[in-house]
Amino acid sequence: MRVETALARLGWAHLFSGQTLEASTIMTYPSGAMLCTNGNPIESLFVVLSGRVKIYTLSEEGKLRLLRLKMAPTLIGDIEYASGRNVLHTVETVGPVTCLRIPFDVLRTHNRTIEFTEHLLRGVSEKLFIEANASSNHLMSTLEERLAGYLVSLSESGNELFQDEMSQLKRKEVAEWLGTSYRHLNRTLQAFADEGLVEKTRTQVTILDATRLKERANGMLYE
To answer: What pTM did the predictor assign?
Structure first.
């Protein structure tokens, strides 16, 4: 993948200088790779050029909580770059993900442009707003709404990735992200199946009525 072509396709070609791109690296990560983990230092900005990532955090009780699923293009590490702090949220790849990895010191030396700074500030502000809104919605929403929103958001990743995330092996993780137990998650999936929203087997989940499922999410989408 040519970096310049990928950035032009995303409309981000004007954000990075030639010197920055020369000092950067294209990286392709497999599904399940951790781009950064909560509380740890990070030294590079990840420009996600293709693929999808899931972003989650730890609750005050020490439990994982899903915040959102993000498709390319997006920046990972922008909040930490701007604040100088350790990683705020864990970011994990969902399927293969290709990123442009830019060391922070390269950005500070070669990329202090108005265009990049404005883009960075808009992105950080939007993320903080979405996070505050998502935290409030998560506390007030039901499990049915959270699960419906997760299924709808995840379905846009493609069937293969959808089935991988909703496999029996992964459902325990999904239950923790959504703030429930594995047993309660399966009961809610079965209730969706009884209503004709999904088809559920021991190993797979298939969405049968995406429109009604989105209505059940009641705006609780992870995007």
So the answer is: 0.77
Distance CA 212, CA 197 (A): 7
Torsion angle defined by CA atoms of residues 84, 88, 93 and 94, in that order, rounded to the nearest 10 degrees: -150
Rounded to a whole number of angstroms, the distance between the first and last alpha carbons of the chain is 26
Contacts of 195 (CB under 8 A, 6+ apart): 212
Q: Are 150 and 158 in contact (CB under 8 A)?
A: no
Contact residues for 131 (Cβ-Cβ < 8 A; gap 6+): 67
* Bond prior to 30 in cis (omega within 30° of 0): no
Over residues 47-59, the pLDDT tens digits come to 999 998 999 887 6
* Cα(79)–Cα(45) distance, integer angstroms: 10
**CA angle at residue 159 from 155 to 162, to 5 degrees?**
55
Q: How far is CA 218 from the centre of its chain?
A: 20
Domain architecture of the chain: domains with CATH: 3-138 (2.60.120.10), 142-217 (1.10.10.10)
Do residues 188 and 143 make contact, with C-beta atoms less than 8 angstroms apart?
yes
Measured CA to CA, the distance from residue 155 to residue 168 in angstroms comes to: 17
The 10s digit of each residue's pLDDT in 207-221 is 889 899 999 988 887
Beta 198-200 vs 34-36: how paired, if at all?
unpaired
